[in-house]
Amino acid sequence: MTQIHISIRKPKTGGLDSVTGLMRFRPVRRHFDADKNLIIAASFDANLSETGELTVDLLPTTPAFVWQVVELADSPQAYTRYVEVPDSQARVEYADLVEVDAATFVPKDMTGSQLLKVRRASTQSEAETLSAQYPDVLVFFNETASVAKAAAIMSTLESITAEAQTNAALAKNAMLSARSSADSATATQSDLDVLASNASMAAASVANDSQTVADTASIVAAKGETAIAAIDSTVRAVKDKAEAATTVLPSTGTTEGTTDTGTTEETTEEPGKDSTPAKAKKATVKEA
């Protein structure tokens, strides 16, 4: 609502005098408001005060309607105006309202001139769309609402930027940690490579030593076999010589100072009995 201040005076000797009477207000043409309410063309009345003043709240006009104001209604001085009411938070003087033609709603001071078509939009984006759709029409929009919306968008972008910076810092820390872990892993791998190389060298040395021991053992075994073969050959030769000596030499022996000069076994056989050799008689030889 917009407050409209009305002050009516009449001339008198030496100055002006206040006028009392009835003011009648009626919206011209039925229309819908911003809340989708149907506003019918019904009038209401308001009385001027004793000082000839009146403050009334009126709906701001749109391209769909204007206000009809009947001054001093039902009196000989009645006069009808058709005016536009701006959307204002401050009080507006009745004398400053733009008077328009009742049929076309065109301001009277523009009669005969080229009409300027105007449309209203709620946002800047809607205004841009209407301007592209109606190039010969001037489109107005609520700049305050657009600025507030832009500020909200900027706040959201700042929040997104801050979050992105935080995520970038976390990613950088993670990268540094990963790089440190990679360096540690590289150092550990290097140590493992050194240990593996040392182990390989030790294994090769052990293998060489084992081969040397095996070769030495083979040589010793071969020499042992040769020595054993020589010993066997020597033993065989000694045995052969011993057997040969036993065959050539007569068997001799002495018992208790007696000398066996030879015995001849005599065999007597009796019928029905086993033959038993007769013991040979020994000759005793005394020493001189």
UniProtKB/TrEMBL annotation:
Residue ranges with Basic residues bias: 279-288
Bias class Low complexity marks the residues at 252-265
Where is region (Disordered) located? 246-288
Name of the featured protein: Uncharacterized protein
Q: Which organism is it from?
A: Bifidobacterium longum
